[in-house]
């Protein structure tokens, strides 16, 4: 599976949660991969919900979102999130702009949670850099 999400916005998300810590490139790459996998899984569920409602267009509510934020308030770009949404769903589905923004918001919250925990893990290990191991440890502990 190719990573559709650029690493730069993921790196920014980690850094805003890192405080004084540095962030390794491998940590950003690992989190980008995990974000993509999670987004793809969420899109599968949203497609199932849309199908149950007799629709071929994924809407924000299919992702459990009632109020959609402004896309300019998000760090994650919407275009790659759209590609992530389409990775594992049938080509017959469309993804509305509100659904793309909703998914980006969900994934950004997800990334913030992981990044905060990774920073705690790096501090606990008495390191000055958040590494790929911190991201992997988070997932081994919490998922």
Describe the protein's architecture and organization:
- This protein has 143 residues and is mainly alpha-helical.
- The chain has five helices and four strands.
- The protein has a two-stranded parallel sheet with strand order 1-4.
- Strand 2, helix 3 and strand 3 form a beta-alpha-beta unit.
- The longest helix is centred in the N-terminal third of the chain and has 28 residues.
- The two termini are 20 Å apart.
* Largest beta-sheet details: 2 strands, parallel
Distance between the termini: 20 Å
Unreliable parts: none
Number of helices: 5
Specify the helix fraction band: 55-70%
Give me the Rg, rounded.
16 Å
Mean pLDDT comes to 96
What's the structural blueprint in terms of helices and strands?
Layout (H helix, E strand, L loop, with lengths): L6 H12 L3 E2 L1 H28 L4 E2 L19 H9 L7 E2 L1 H28 L4 E2 L1 H11 L1
Parallel strand pairs: 1-4, 2-3
Helix pairs in contact: 1-2, 1-4, 2-3, 2-4, 2-5, 3-4, 4-5
Which features would summarize this protein structure in a list?
143 residues, mainly alpha, two-stranded parallel sheet, 5 helices, 6% strand
């Amino acid at each position: 599976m190719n990573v559709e999400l650029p690493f730069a916005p993921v790196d920014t998300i980690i850094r805003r949660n890192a405080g004084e810590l540095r962030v390794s490139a491998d940590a950003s790459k690992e989190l980008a991969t995990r974000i993509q996998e999670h987004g793809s899984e969420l899109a599968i569920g949203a497609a199932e919900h849309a199908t149950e409602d007799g629709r071929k267009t994924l809407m924000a509510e299919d992702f459990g979102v009632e109020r959609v934020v402004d896309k300019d308030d998000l760090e994650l770009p919407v275009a790659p999130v759209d590609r992530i949404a389409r990775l594992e769903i049938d080509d017959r589905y469309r993804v509305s702009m509100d659904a793309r923004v909703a998914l980006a918001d969900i994934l950004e919250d997800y990334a913030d949670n992981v990044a905060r925990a990774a920073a705690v893990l790096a501090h606990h290990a008495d390191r000055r850099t958040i590494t790929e191991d911190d991201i992997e440890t988070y997932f081994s502990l919490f998922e």
